[in-house]
Amino acid sequence: MSRNHHPRIPPQSRSRRPLRPGRGQGAGPGLPVQGPALFTPPALVVDAGQVQVSGLCATTITVVGYPREVGPGWMEPLLAYPGRLDVALHIDPTPPAVAALRLRRQLGRLESGRRADAAAGRLADPELDAAAQDAGELARQVARGEARLFRVGLYLTVYADSRDQLAEEAARVTALAHSLLLTVRRARYRTIQGWVSTLPLGLDLLRIRRAFDTDALAAGIPFTTPDLPLPDPQRPGAAPVVYGTNLHSAGLVAHDRWAQPNYNSVTTGASGTGKSFLMKLDVLRSLYQGVEVAIVDPEDEYARLAAAVGGTRLALGAPGVHLNPLDLPAHSRHDPDLLTRRALFCHTLIATLLGDPTGDGGGGLGAGGWAALDAAILTAYRQAGITGDPATWTRPAPLLADVTAALTAAEDPAGPALAARLAPFVTGSHAGLFAHPTTTQPTGHLVVYSLRALPDELKAAGTLLTLDAIWRTVADPAQRRRRLVVVDEGWLLMAHPAGAKFLFRLAKAARKHWAGLAVVTQDSADLLGSDLGRAVIANSATQILLRQDPSVIDDLRRVYKLTDGEATQLLTAGPGDALLLTGTGQRTALHALASPAEHALITTDPVDTTTAPGDTGPLDPAWPQETDSASAGLGRAPHRQAARRPVDDDADPF
């Protein structure tokens, strides 16, 4: 901010001075009022400690001292003050040559003081040593061009309706400034200059300046993210998503998973913490960026979202909806091992259906059962006319019933026993999903696979089938584009080793197909309690932790290397509060924030989704009701922050 010239202000006195429109400086009779005269009130009452402006009493408080170190967003409490408080920040850059000269002089004064104390036999002054160290470090940064110096003036004008109220408001603002370790003084006998300096005129009539470096000044701007830099929206392939507000600076938290080492994410939290809410917010805002999204939805929570954005919803378990696990994907028919890969997938699916505790042939089926199953799958393909010749792969694929028939006709006694165990899924009560060829291939920018209609016995298998169908689309080289695959309630798959292996393979291979896997689960123990679960976490560059159960906090502390403050925050976090960790080692605490229109689409709170008699829609969508973005950061545990250091403490070196 450049230095401004201003007219001289008449001496202050306790008098009433009527100022009529059109009679200000530079305005003649009949001419419109321009410039500062637009802000001229009809009357002023000037006193030694306050000024009365059009019936309002005002006093200006100047900041004359700062702490040695300041944290990110340190001015935000002043800007968020609930009363009427005008905050003016005047910035005057110091030329690098002048800054270097002044720093050299300051270093000389500090060093001479230290040597004088040493020569006199006095003990070293810790404050003097710290000031010399800070000045030396800043001088090196200025010399290398890593920082600049600024002359900064910070003024606060408080307004009230009466003198008594003004004294109370000024005391509150002073206490708030002291809590920020700021030293403040009332602008006595300069009340007009103080009031004018806080008007939007760019005039600093007080000229009470302090020296700041770049980091300390930037940290004071509240619209910042302390630990997470804003992503570059111009980067090729960028798709940044705004998650909400920062719990420590009230700035916005925006994250771009497509700029991370991989595109996968893991979101964990106890029930009712808002993990699905945050994931749906991520999905909705990713759609704005042109990302195609496929969702495995166990509880049918994404139905309203899909309907609102024109997405496709496929309800597995509903009448007429079928998925054939033996289908040969058309885009993979160039792979000479395609038939073998489909047979192995059928092994994984059947292991999940039968609840095999290992899925590797050493569990509930035994080695003989798995050998019989492998032979039956290949027999079913041969009977359908499908062999190792790729020319036969366009023929209709066999069904699970054909595999069961081959098992029944097998000479190995394990075959009929295995066929009997598969009977409920072929001819029994659970046969609806596998009884016929695949009925639909949903496409579009948003595809939701709803598993709510499936019985509990088929939830894990339905999730596995859905992931396989999604993978056929993701791995199609002819349709390569950014895709996000969301697995809600991932504990359903992690509870089965065969499903966990498939999820791990998907996490490993998704990046090469320009896809990201987003796992959402409420049971952190399922991820941390197995090698495959920890491997999924290790292959996820984006990790979001919401409120956690105390029984798993020690494991989370070890896996995510949480500080004591972060662990405490996760134990006491409110709905929508989360800790975001990125693959580049950055982390920040945030509060999920949705607009009323977004909230109406993604909330599952019964208070919002239930309509009262006579109502025409859901209740006021102000999620969550018990918290808001302004108060979300109050009372939270301390979070690891990078401190920013002003040039000086209470003594201005210039």
| Total count of strands | 18
How many angstroms separate the termini? 19 Å
CATH architecture of the largest domain, by name, is 3-Layer(aba) Sandwich
What structural class do helix, strand and pairing data support?
alpha/beta
- Main CATH class of the largest domain: Alpha Beta
**Shape, principal axes of CA atoms:** elongated
Number of helical elements:
21
Helix content: 25-40%
Largest sheet: number of strands, sense, barrel closure: 11 strands, mixed
Q: Strand fraction band?
A: 15-25%
How would you explain this protein's 3D organization?
Helix 9 runs antiparallel to helix 13 and helix 10 packs across helix 11. Helices cover 35% and strands 16% of the residues. By secondary structure, the protein is α/β, with parallel strands linked by helices. The longest helix is centred in the N-terminal third of the chain and has 24 residues. It has an eleven-stranded mixed beta sheet.
